[in-house]
Amino acid sequence: MSPSGEVWGVGVGPGDPELMTVKACRILEAADIVAYPAPFEGDSLARGIAAHHIPPGAEELPIRISMDPRRYPQTDVYDRAYREIAMHVGQGHKVVVLCEGDPFFYGSFMYLFERLSESCPVEMVPGVSSLTACAAELAFPLAARDDVLSVIPATLPEEVIADRLGGCDVAAIIKVGRHLAKVRRALEQAGLSQHAHYAERVTMAGQRTKPLTSLPDETVPYFSMILVHRRGRAAS
Amino acid sequence: MSPSGEVWGVGVGPGDPELMTVKACRILEAADIVAYPAPFEGDSLARGIAAHHIPPGAEELPIRISMDPRRYPQTDVYDRAYREIAMHVGQGHKVVVLCEGDPFFYGSFMYLFERLSESCPVEMVPGVSSLTACAAELAFPLAARDDVLSVIPATLPEEVIADRLGGCDVAAIIKVGRHLAKVRRALEQAGLSQHAHYAERVTMAGQRTKPLTSLPDETVPYFSMILVHRRGRAAS
Question: What is A6-128's CATH number?
Fold first, then answer.
């Protein structure tokens, strides 16, 4: 137990436990309470990545998010998790919240952060994001020199995706999931289909990478990404 | 010495040695040859970050980049470094090239990668980028849900910066350096000045962060960044 309580948002990287930072390991190993996002039933990805560094005596606090927000509103989930974490901090505990990838890069941590940061200091440990991990696994240099790089969620409407593709040199289209057909059409509109590379579950068991043109039409996992460069590749 | 030679591009993170990944440390500790970018005179930032993990017997190969490309063309520098690294790989050595931040995120490594990847396999270790490190140090949640995030080099013309700012929800303007006045004007044009946050040398000695409105007009370091969100902050 620390003399005064504290909260840490700790990025655990894209999946390979070795892509945790030295700092993430150290902070986690000194935790009193370890919180992490988890599905309503089943295992937490973030916990799985960091499992080896969770101290044996730590209390675990899964933050279970339902895929059916009508039945279980997410604001209620984060409000409840916030209250529980704040209580532990008030008791002088060190609380570590594990975050897949980086805590502030499209992560659910920011909903907790908003609530927590009003009542107590929150320390952050940045992590390797899925963006740079995908680039590494695809051997795809992302951006150089004057390149504008845009990260575009596949959840946006087709026209918006196509428009945003037109305003950058290199794009990462994230959260492809069930939006693959729409993303293909947007890339076609932008004249970029031939240059697009697809990756899913990077650095994890079941990783798959291929040129988008050779990917069958199917629903792909939520943890998937398409990288595309206007010139084919970032060039010297 | 490895039975067959290999090359690794290893991201060492934004500056704090503890933000190296466990994998980066392990790969570096088994290197025969350690290469890294360095100024023409003086110390290499990447080497400084990773120094503690360079094995005592390793041969070091600084890749010295002049700030005056007329006198010392950079293509010559990378051609020469490529030939030297390829020679070591041919002799069965394990060569690790250290890269500040992430190797494929606006790093100079990609010029070596282009040359090397044609003649030998190059293994990559992604790193924590300055983007997520800045967000952590500024306590600035970058992007959530449908947010489009753009990374915009400050070296671009003012009108291009303003235009690209108009096409995203959150922007990271990188390499601010001597372009601060121009970037301010572009942010003003885009109506975003009030929301902008400035950071330099994040996670290193001499780190400085402040709202852009309270930063004096001056030349700032090359390793500096401005983060700005259309809504002020990524919100739930």
Answer: 3.40.1010.10
